[in-house]
């Protein structure tokens, strides 16, 4: 459908353009989005220019004091209403997500519903986020009070666009910040529809969408009138955001790349371990922040494990499937597929064996098969760098100690998984792995509200959980003393 915004045509797919103050679009170059499943056109979205970026930040700045003065309980009421609207529009959002990124519809729908739940969670957590009273002098009162930063720029990712954005937007808004949100240029329609739904209940100027590519994101991150920049995405972009924030004085909150290891002990069932490895490496075509990126398996079960993992990879099929198969969508675009394939071919040239997959399919779209690499060595890129694709590189180790030592190496520190029946090995692993999250005997999962700080090149600050509210506020220390009464 085509609508007019600010006197300029805006060709979009699947969402209704909002008022100009809520969607900042320019009249110049447009983002052209194609479906990675078949290469068909999803739609085009005009990118914002410098004028639109300035107007978006200025509008958010003007709206912030009034929004912050609202009772936090009232902000929570609005967010609960927004969460209900997201649930009602879940199928529309999931359909757009599927069209733009190729994510299987069932997985996309689960992500939308998780996002709606996260918005509702922060609606409840906001009113109980509090400061502390301090023990001072008898005649005074001392306390700390959390205050919003002000204007937050949120640069969100494409691999789970609704769930990721909902956490950041929900926490920022309930704590009294206003937000300028730039969804990923790979799924702008999904991001715009999400923001439009939230804006159905929010006051004018509290949440503004800005469409654009990485240059627009860089421009937003470098603005001196922004107080907090939140980025979920690649490590390279995260470092650029951090450098810009260091110049402007803004706070940077980053969740960036990972190279998460899976350590398979020699005492586990190899078939079960292969199933866990496949879930971790191939879910969402490997395009998850905490995907399994490298596997260290004990030599005692390596042969059986590899055979079972190859069988698991063969079950991952595109499109319609048999009951025993698992649907796997394409990679987000052809350019990203090229990067994934480069790592695979580099490993094969360096001596790795490709047991299954590893070839670019014929035809349109950006599909890539579930791939298993054996005989991997530490110097290969596929073990050193984030692949972000359906690739399971396996390294055989002599014992648990060697596997743990190698799993602990590298620049990233997002998450790690250990499969073992030994409590001693589990205890040793979670203490020694230098990552924010360690999972034992399950590649995905965990209690609601869990939060961790990524380490190293994986970012800085809490990106989820109740602790995210603290990241969105800064504490002010207040001392209330008794004044001296003057003459009447």
Automatic annotation (TrEMBL):
InterPro entries: Ald_DH/histidinol_DH, Ald_DH_C, Ald_DH_CS_CYS, Ald_DH_N, Aldehyde_DH_dom. Transmembrane segments: none annotated. Keywords: Oxidoreductase. GO terms for molecular function: oxidoreductase activity, acting on the aldehyde or oxo group of donors, NAD or NADP as acceptor. Residues 29-478 form the Aldehyde dehydrogenase domain. PANTHER family: ALDEHYDE DEHYDROGENASE-RELATED. This is Succinate-semialdehyde dehydrogenase. It comes from Longimycelium tulufanense. The gene is gabD.
